[in-house]
Amino acid sequence: MEKRVCRRIKAGQEVIFSYDKTKRFGTLINCSEKGMYIKPSISSPVNPAYEIRIPLKGELLRIPGRVVRVVKHGDCYDGFGLELTKLPKSYLKYLIKLDLIHES
Fold it and tell me: Which residues of 18-53 are buried (b: 16+ CB within 10 A; e: fewer)?
């Protein structure tokens, strides 16, 4: 059994992820201080890295990450796990708020 370094927090947040000039949409299923799992809206091949954009009130979080896990069933790409490569302080604040919401 694989042990995670950080506890995952449920998110359910719509996100934008991009590689070069290609922009795609999906749902942030869960996240932590070290990574996140995203389910794309449309199945397509996965790139080695993405910039994740999380739209919030008055702010757009931009978080770079590299793909470390791909979930695929047949020819469909169902999701991918990212290791976050740079954490803005605003992302850590986002995690705290998300955790408080799901504890209530």
Answer: eeeeeebebebbbbeeebbbbebeeeeebeeebebe
**Domains, in order of start, for the chain:** 9-98 (2.40.10.220)
8 A C-beta contact, residue 95 and residue 31? yes
- Mind listing the pLDDT tens digit for each residue in 4-56? 567 899 999 999 999 988 999 999 999 999 999 999 999 888 899 999 999 98
pTM of the model: 0.89
Number of CB atoms found within 10 A of residue 62's CB: 15
User: With 0-12 CB in 10 A as exposed, 13-18 as middle and 19+ as buried, what is 96?
Assistant: exposed
Contact 50, 13 (CB under 8 A): no
